[in-house]
Structure prediction request, 257 residues.
Amino acid sequence: MKRRHRPVTIACAVHVIAFGVMLRDAHAQDKATCAHASEEAQDARRDGKLLDAKKKLLLCAAASCPAVVRTDIPSIVAMARDAAGRDLEGVMLSIDDQRVPLPLDGRAVELDPGWRVVRFERSGFVPARERVLVRQGEKNRTIVVALTPVDHAPAPAPPERAGPEAGGQPSRPLWPFVLAGAGVAMAGAGVILAVSGHGDAAQLQRECAPACGESAASAALTKWIVGWALIGVGATAGGIGTWFAFQPTGVQVQGSF
Prediction:
């Protein structure tokens, strides 16, 4: 009987030894995986990527591994209300343009520390954005926004006109430049006529005085008078136009001309 049971005993011993070797190899592999995950998690933690560090530490079989980072991961509790202060259902949340899978339901949302842009969206309401500084280790920070219905949203403000109040340079009116230019042209024509009349009178004085015809003398005198009249009107118009053209743009001149 003892000889008959000996092969069975040997086979059982072989299986036990093989199973022990498998357990040893599996344990060694788990230790290597945990060590590698722990190194990557430490790098992620130093970079402020606590959520990524938590995921890597969850690969570790040791129960104490995730506890290294779990206490540092901050979280927020986001809420959206209407104008009357009532909580709104069906509000979707996005953090740095990353959509949170489920609508707001009062549960905390974990995120990495740093500046974050939190966006609230609900059908029929104007989306709202909040830029917040999330601190490492800060838990269940409450962020509340009030959403405005689309039909009650304020109309966009009209574009501001450029002016001293807006910091812009207002445009100058065109008429002073036109008046100044016309005055210069008129004065120039007057100078030509006055010089021409004076020249005609001098020529008559040399050639036929005092027996010159009345018409010739009258024409020379008319040129001279009209020329000086144009000079006077042109100089006045040019001066007025120039004065208005270079006045400060915010000054309003009262009166009429």
